[in-house]
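Notes to self after the Tuesday call (sharing in case useful).
The group wants a holo model before anyone commits to mutagenesis around the pocket. I volunteered. Ligand is 6-phosphogluconic acid. Logging inputs and output together so the record is complete.
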Amino acid sequence: MNPYDILVFNTPEEAAKAIAQLISNRINEKQNSLSPFNLAISGGKTPQTLFNILANDFAEKIPWHQLRLFWVDERCVPPTHPESNFGMTNETLLKKVPLPKKNVFRMKGEAFPEEEAIRYQSLLTKELPSKNGIPVFDLILLGMGNDGHTASIFPKDINLIDSHLSVAVTQHPDTGQKRITLTGPVLKQADEIIFFVTGASKATILKEIVLNEPSAKKYPAFHIYSAEGKTSFYLDKEAAALLPKELPLL
Ligand code: 6PG
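Result:
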């Protein structure tokens, strides 16, 4: 049985709209609750469309005070650097919506990475509910790289799928750029995980993962799913091109 929900859309924009609607629904469902909605987001290119849609079409629909925003990973650069995940989110989303500053928990890419990983781990322990001693997010938004990495867990870091740490430091295999990343246990403890993956360059790896092929074991993304909740893949038709045709196009 396929453990994932797979949703295939014509375009990345349509997939992003569906994710924006889901995030809005989930936050609204918590509106009358005392607990906030704790969301961890990824960086990279794919979520930029989503952040633009949230800023332009959902600014009035989301009770922003109810949301608390965390990061799945950060590149070790200052927030003003073009590669900063926080910087990108700040430009596309945070500058445009009334999310209180106190609800934004960024990873400090400009700090000493090993110290920042320890600080962020303590922050998660303090700010989030926990289960089995592991912090629990309501929702985690993940991407997938062309080498099957997710968050900043690269194939060479597969040992971070199981780790006693919640936050670790890794290095991009090609550029050597240091990264701060959530590890497998905290990702898998989330109530819900959404992978947002688009483009033809991801199609082969995606097929291996979704069809549970033996070759997929080397990809960190293969090992990440919500242990007790729901995991969904939101795809455009290019990323989904090699999946079985019976999957309906939304
Ligand atoms: C990052 C990420 C990373 C990303 C994938 C996909 O900081 O790079 O969080 O895990 O989600 O690399 O990136 P693209 O969306 O740019 O393809």
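Two things stood out.
The pocket of 6-phosphogluconic acid is lined by residues 42-46, 72-73, 75, 85, 143-145, 149-152 (CB under 6 Å).
The two ends are 21 Å apart (CA to CA).
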